[in-house]
Amino acid sequence: MQDEGIPFVSSVSPGRRTKRLRFFILLALAVFIVIGAFLGLSSYLSEKVVTLAPASGTKITFGNFTTTANEKVRVKPGTYKVSYSEEGYATLTKNISVQSATTLKTPQLDYSADRLKTLLQQNNATIHSDLAPALDTSGYTLSYEALYGRGQWYGAILTPADPTTQDIVRLIAENTNGGWKIVAGPSIVLSTVDYPNLPQSALSDINSRYN
Fold it and tell me: Which residues pair with 75 in a beta bridge?
């Protein structure tokens, strides 16, 4: 029978309890630090190195990072937007998948729209002269023309005087060996199936216009 009125006295002194509590707190902190370090290391090791190597005078924008000099960035695997730009050239933007170490170099960029318009004005007479022997334009009017790429591709639309009897036709010409030659058309539509080696930008533009 337990004696009443006698208080319970712990055999563990207050100083020892404090030491134990401090030990468990430090142990918990150590565990959190180890786990955090492990997760950080795992994330670091999973990242991929992307080397940005823009050509002289060009700029590469990769995600939110822009540079005109060789740089390396670490990113997690995934899909990223990259843009290449240079004064006087059309900006090229596309999505790339990064699953391993990747090097991005500036591709060949097309001339800007303003630069191509200036070139067309300068070479208009020569283009018409070179194409004339192979192109019968009787009954047609030149309603649209443009240069593409770096000025080596020419597209034109010919509109008939009477659209009820004749169709609008399109053509693509290329500047080769210092002269212009028709490489596609004249026809109603210039498809990428029939002309897989021609620049898609030129075919898309010329097919989307009606006059």
Answer: 48
Long-range Cβ pairs for the range 27-34 (8 Å, 24+): none
Q: Find out whether 174 and 154 touch, Cβ atoms under 8 Å.
A: yes
DSSP state of 180: E
The residue whose two tokens read 């240079």 is 86
Residue whose tokens read 């004064």: 87
* 153 burial level (CB within 10 Å; 0-12, 13-18, 19+): buried
Spatial separation of the C-alpha atoms in residues 190 and 28, rounded to whole Å:
71
User: Are 57 and 72 within 8 A, CB to CB?
Assistant: no
User: pTM for this structure?
Assistant: 0.73
C-alpha distances out from residue 64 to 21, 45, 81, 119, 152, Å: 47, 22, 9, 34, 34
Q: Would you say 62 and 72 are in contact if contact means Cβ atoms under 8 Å apart? A: no
pLDDT means over runs of 10, the chain (211 residues): 52 64 69 59 68 94 92 91 95 93 93 96 94 87 94 95 87 92 94 92 90 61
Q: How far is CA 68 from CA 98, 120, 211, in A?
A: 21, 30, 41
Beta strand residue intervals within the chain, DSSP E: 48-53, 59-62, 65-67, 71-75, 78-85, 92-98, 102-105, 140-148, 153-160, 169-176, 179-187
